[in-house]
Amino acid sequence: MWLKHLKQRLTRTSERLTGGLGGLLGDGGADGGARFFDELETRLLGADVGAATSLAVIDNLKKRAGRGGARDLAALLELLRDEIAAVLAPCQLPDGGAPAAGAGGPFAVLVAGVNGVGKTTTIGKLGHHYKACGRSVMFAAGDTFRAAAIEQIEAWGRRCDIAVVSQAPGADSAAVIFDALASARAKGADILLADTAGRLHTDRNLMEELKKVKRAMARQDNAAPHEVLLVVDAGTGQNALSQTRAFHDALGVTGIVATKLDGTAKGGVLVAMAAEFGIPIRFIGVGEAAQDLRPFNAREYAGAMLGLDTPDAANTAESTTANTAASTAARE
Ligand SMILES: Nc1nc2c(ncn2[C@@H]2O[C@H](COP(=O)(O)OP(=O)(O)OP(=O)(O)O)[C@@H](O)[C@H]2O)c(=O)[nH]1
Ligand SMILES: [Mg+2]
Prior knowledge:
This protein has 332 residues and is α/β, with parallel strands linked by helices. The protein contains 14 helices and eight strands. It has one domain: 3-Layer(aba) Sandwich (Rossmann fold).
């Protein structure tokens, strides 16, 4: 189910990459497939895979296809999937890196990113995911700035039956999150997901404010935040790279969630991010509903980018939630 859904949601990217490609193989690759490989490289660039990575992927593909190998489109796409998956693989964690129980406290996640990328929605979906895995979750309404931000996270809290710690609009975000962490500790919650207001990565003052939030969390628990989760909108393409650079410099990003992969043909940006940063891509978002978020899997994603079925991964994806619950139980 999920794989079909993922493939369908990534249609814009897969069409950009593979639409009409077969026609370029022409007479069976009399030109050694030169036209095909050139076009494929251009398309990888268009899907925001990035210049260096596109070139490397195509070079490897040419070598593996061998002389006269540029004939069979299906076989070439399988090889291409391998090449893309190899770039993505170092950024994949089992089950999106299911949080270990903190030493006597909740696993505290600070969620950050520029305006409108999907932070609050991702928190709602993550809450839903972790609850389905049997973890107890709390939310911190740390976006005290944007109108209706508190109502938005409270609505997710009601939908998922998750307690939300909030204060009045305009309150100090660091104070709200500090209190929420204290409350999550007192209540013995497994995971605290802290929302923050969207901010431009180029705004020095607002980036300083985030550092302050991070310090406030550490005062409550030395090891907190256990995760600094950056949310990026994949549709912003190359801009997602500069956002990641700036947030990583300021905060030390430990995980990435890429959202809105359903609405964009730039799904290749994850490959560029993997190649440049190597920061774990923990989850991907492919829609607005609670179930439109899943742990990132390199091979599944590479296949969906190319519109391929991934029969060998069908079982693993279907049982991801069950695996998470099982591995969680095993740790406890
Ligand atoms: N299609 C699609 N829409 C998404 C996805 N994730 C979030 N959205 C939508 O994007 C819009 C913005 O989402 P929010 O969660 O409010 O974004 P935010 O980063 O919290 O925004 P600010 O707090 O204003 O910075 C909402 O309409 C969401 O429903 C996704 O994966 N796919
Ligand atoms: Mg928000």
